[in-house]
């Protein structure tokens, strides 16, 4: 999704070298020193042909690319070392990579023969691959693939322009087919980058097979409308899980994508270890390592859960697919869980909806995030979005492992009371003896290990302490009435608690709207034959939606002939 071959450049407006839609954190392409027919981001410069109306560049995704470069940089340092302790059988080309011998933006940073190999499945203009080659130390080889011939030609031009031919190779093929063929030749990759338009699931089977042991999968999903609960039936058909509409829908989107990757990996005796999982803007991005261990795969059922959400108060209850029983001096045993009594919600007496399964294990590796923070802090001038990276990573590092979170506004809206200040809510949880943290996925929200009963006790105490709810509201909503009439069973105090302090205050996490109608942009045109889509390809892409009109035209022609 870095630069798609598209019919429109409405959101980028770069036909004459000007970009009115780039947010403050992105590179200014209007600089007089910059080639007016090019886009510069990081150390890469992407050329635009004279017919640049077909080139699409989404500046909002620069945060995605910057974060990927940071993750890949840390991973590239660790992967060659971890190879020594893993049984591997690597075959395939090992092209000599040029070392840093020239000056300028085309300098290759510390590339080496024992470095990592990267496969970008949907490279488009090649911006991401070129930035990897120029900015990530320790890369031996990058294969930039795309199905569009026009895109591959653009990649080749940009690779030559940035002088990274010794590292970046182009591939004109279907992404999954290319990975399957590489696996057949026993040429595996250390990292695979999937950044499709929409759902990535159709590429995951090939991805988990073509990765080296301990390899890194960088996966983006931009179909948040599906993942966030608007279309549960579509979500199941694409990801194998049912989504639920809830205030924590963005975290649920992350957990659905992770369970989808885990399920594909389990089929081949592999399992995932999430390093970082980020929900940002209109997409989710996950970074996971994939290892092989049939024994560890048995633990997967204990790391996946169904989600039961009350239709009244929206409280969530997780129920694992399986239970792992740890035994001293013995291998763990596995059993099926017993279904809890969830016919009615104990807080509002409403029924439940069931979603999932979702990944209920950790979303992040705090030690890995610490290394990312060190890298970004030491080279903040390298990333245009470094402030936002520091903000998101700092919050993610300190997130509790407890799945899902509460948004204060949503909780208070259930009973129609005045919203509780965030620090007051956090202090009440800390004073009650529970852990609390922020989440990167939503503002004005908290993650906590406190049960829902404590959450509603806080709300009830808040209402009784001078923030009453009108009688009209109580009569109109049976949910409000049942929650407020229940007794307070916990000692709730709103005194400030230092443990509830927000260390991330002032950090940048959410950007303002960078341009009108910003988002993932338009889907790329499917140019298959000499830059022009065949009628058959167009018919399949349109799913025969134009067929009725075609029939009418045929009938009118027959009448004219008569």
Automatic annotation (TrEMBL):
Per UniProt, the keywords (alphabetical) are: Methyltransferase, RNA-binding, S-adenosyl-L-methionine, Transferase, tRNA processing, tRNA-binding
Q: Which PANTHER family match?
A: N 2 ,N 2 -DIMETHYLGUANOSINE TRNA METHYLTRANSFERASE, TRNA (GUANINE(26)-N(2))-DIMETHYLTRANSFERASE
Region called Disordered, residue ranges? 1-28, 81-106, 537-562
Catalytic activity, per the record?
guanosine(26) in tRNA + 2 S-adenosyl-L-methionine = N(2)-dimethylguanosine(26) in tRNA + 2 S-adenosyl-L-homocysteine + 2 H(+)
Pfam families per record: TRM
Give GO MF terms, alphabetically.
tRNA (guanine(26)-N2)-dimethyltransferase activity; tRNA binding
Q: NCBIfam families, from UniProt?
A: TRM1
Concerning its family, UniProt says: Belongs to the class I-like SAM-binding methyltransferase superfamily. Trm1 family.
Its Enzyme Commission number(s) read: 2.1.1.216
Q: Which organism is it from?
A: Lygus hesperus
The protein's name is tRNA (guanine(26)-N(2))-dimethyltransferase
Q: Gene encoding this polypeptide?
A: CG6388_0
User: What does UniProt list as this organism's lineage?
Assistant: Eukaryota, Metazoa, Ecdysozoa, Arthropoda, Hexapoda
Matching entries from PROSITE patterns are given as:
SAM_MT_TRM1
